[in-house]
Write a structure and sequence with these properties.
It holds the Pfam family TetR_N. Helix content is 73%, strand content 0%. It has 11 helices and no strands. It has helices at residues 3-25, 32-39, 43-49, 53-75, 82-97, 103-111, 114-121, 125-134, 140-163, 175-183, 192-213.
């Protein structure tokens, strides 16, 4: 095995161990020393592959997010029904990560804004699909601004609703539905309220099917 492949292999091993520890005991309670010990390497060698524990977490969350997006694309066409796609992915993300085994990890990545970092880097592709279907007159620059705003607001709303449960009774709808409305709050097109509300309902039904048909979704 070449040196480059050995480095990649060790980096992947570190990620797998970090993932197991993060998901079972949470991000905050997991230390670099624990990860290094499980991989049987020094803390210094761990730092050679990853500058920080946060860098590991961002990569792990990025992979989880893309995995969930992959499941969503199996059931919803993002180009034909972009609002439904967004609703389904938001609901799937919440439903999968809020399960008991992953709850601590989920709360940690919200509290530390790790999920926010991942959402921001995913770009605005879904918002472009929404623009193309409902607001074709909107410029690329406007769409990009709306996309970044939507990503930031949805992540911030998710953080608040999950970490501070006292907010929930004050806002109508399920947590995924509220996040969806927040992410698309600046969009105005014919029938927008009805489209968003229907997408929230249908998205929940699709997520039930995904969770039923696919085990170990995380």
């Amino acid at each position: 095995m070449s040196t480059e492949k050995k480095i990649d292999s060790k980096k992947e091993e570190i990620l797998q161990i970090a993932r197991e520890l993060f998901l079972t005991q949470g991000y905050t309670k997991t230390s670099i020393r624990q990860i290094a010990s499980k991989v049987h390497i020094s803390v210094g060698l761990t730092a050679y592959h990853f500058k920080s524990k946060r860098e590991m977490a961002v990569e792990i969350v990025r992979r989880i997010f893309h995995r969930l997006a992959g499941y969503t694309k199996m059931y919803v066409n993002r180009h034909e029904t972009p609002v439904l796609y967004s609703a389904t992915l938001i609901c799937l993300n919440y439903t999968a990560l809020s399960q008991t085994p992953y709850r601590s990890f989920y709360e940690d990545i919200l509290r530390e804004d790790i999920l926010l970092d991942v959402l921001i880097e995913t770009g605005v592709e879904t918002y472009i699909c929404i623009r193309d279907k409902y607001c074709p007159w909107m410029s690329d620059e406007e769409t990009e601004k709306m996309g970044w705003y939507g990503n930031y607001v949805s992540a911030s709303m998710e953080r608040s609703l999950v970490l501070y449960q006292g907010m929930k009774p004050l806002i109508e709808g399920t947590i995924p539905e509220i996040i969806l409305k927040a992410s698309l709050g600046m969009w105005h097109f014919k029938g927008d309220v009805q489209v968003i509300e229907e997408a929230g309902r249908k998205g929940r039904e699709i997520v039930e099917k995904i969770m039923e048909n696919h085990k170990n979704i995380i």
